[in-house]
Amino acid sequence: MGSFAAEGGAQDGPVAGRYRLGRRIGRGGMGTVWQATDELLGREVAVKELHTEDRDLTLREARTVALVKHPNVMVLHDIVEQDGRPWIVMELIDGRSLSDLLAARGPVGPREAARIGVALLGALRAAHARGVLHRDIKPANVLIESGTGRVVLTDFGIARVPGATTLTGTGAFVGSPEYTAPERMSGGQAGPESDLWSLGVLLCAALSGESPFHRDSLGGILHAVVYDEIRPPDSAGPLLPVVRGLLERDPARRMGADEAERLLNGYLETGRTPAASVHYTPTQRSVPTPVPPAATATPPPPPGKRPSRARTALLAGLALIVLAGAGAAVAVTLLEREGGGADAKSAPRNGSSAGATVSASQSPPQAPATATVNAPPGFHAVQDPAGFALAVPDGCTRSFEPPRVFYYSPGKEFRIGILIQDPQEGGPAGAMRNSATQAPDRYPGYRDGKVARSRHRGGDAATWEFTWDGFEKSEGPRHTYDLSWNEADKMYDIWVSGPEAKSAEAQRYFRTALDTFARIRPSSGR
């Protein structure tokens, strides 16, 4: 693969004798993306190093995607080989992913969501016309170009032609569960309609900051996608006909691209969504059925209701995927690390929640419904619906930015972040080191980073401390204190960021948050 520096991306000479790598600008399960210089043409490009051993398949799919030409699809310039590994050369977009923007600025309004939707529909129509399914439509794979606002669909890394399945030959799941269509969950064939379902989920996430299928475990997500009542966010109101049409579980009745585009364009032109030309029956309300434990092959039907053949296939597929987790065969990107910026901590990867789902029969210690928090002067106690209590400085306001909770001081001068997730491979120290490895690409001016093992509340813990330059130049240097620890069946992470000139005050907020933190039973709301 060549010799790479840990972060700089330099190797012994340019890739394929032409593309000299610079800084790393992204990394996912399918590959690592580097900013590079095309020394032949003298232009900046993005070069993706693919993490796969199936060279022929990758090259065949890359050539297929290269045929997709549309203003809202990232341009593929070249496919080369280096040390027997394929590399894809693409246009370099000066902008940020939609997931980054949502984490930094919060949800978008209906008009911006409609604009993004129209652009992505055009991109998908061009791909589908070439027989290419994207299969991973999500905010992290949508770029918004700075200055122009151009919407660009990227990362066709797991694209397939129609008829491909969600499960690979090794039993690995392909895609991001919260954005995956129910027919793909069954492990069966999927068509263009599956991408349209994912677009419907993306619109909900853009409008509210969260997918309607967000849950705390892989099993919960799968169950929500294939069975639970679908509840679009209240903020989807102006675009509700489109969202409901795209989130129709039966792909035969799902709204098509032409109809969705017509309704979104109508809203952009008039501020009101036209009536749908075809009546799309809303998803039927159903009685939720618990996700089956690992020993159960087929989940029971709802009381007094016999499941249809299609529903049985979906639920059997769900059970198959959950069972696969027991053998570590499910390669699911669950709540992916979408680079939400310096104060947006990362969520679990690589299906870490699958193991928690399989072992659900081992009941963890039950947290109390409330906790007594002794807030010092200048602080007040909060009982957060996400499942914890602590003391925060007076004047702080809460912001739920899935899967993280923030408490911001006025003007966001100080930021307290809390993340609750399933235990990670390598423990808190491994999770911290992984975040620190990605920090130079996520924290402007990242420096003086220190990760150390520790103990906290009787469990394994790790600390991470660093300085950076803030998201905006006007912020000036900032300092972050971070501690992560294992307790009961979860890994908890608390961090505080504040101006470097007020690091003593930030450290006091940090120590107070840690000293007063208590687990409580999560409420139904977030």
Automatic annotation (TrEMBL):
Compositionally biased residues, Pro residues: 289-305
Compositionally biased residues, Low complexity: 356-373
Entries under Pfam families matching the protein: Pkinase (PF00069)
Keywords attached to this entry: ATP-binding, Kinase, Membrane, Nucleotide-binding, Serine/threonine-protein kinase, Transferase, Transmembrane, Transmembrane helix
Organism of origin: Streptomyces orinoci
GO molecular function: protein serine/threonine kinase activity
Xref: SUPFAM superfamilies: Protein kinase-like (PK-like)
Binding site for ATP: 48
EC numbers for this chain: 2.7.11.1
Enzyme class name: transferase
Protein name (Swiss-Prot/TrEMBL): non-specific serine/threonine protein kinase
Residue numbers spanned by region Disordered: 274-309, 341-375, 423-454
CDD domains: STKc_PknB_like
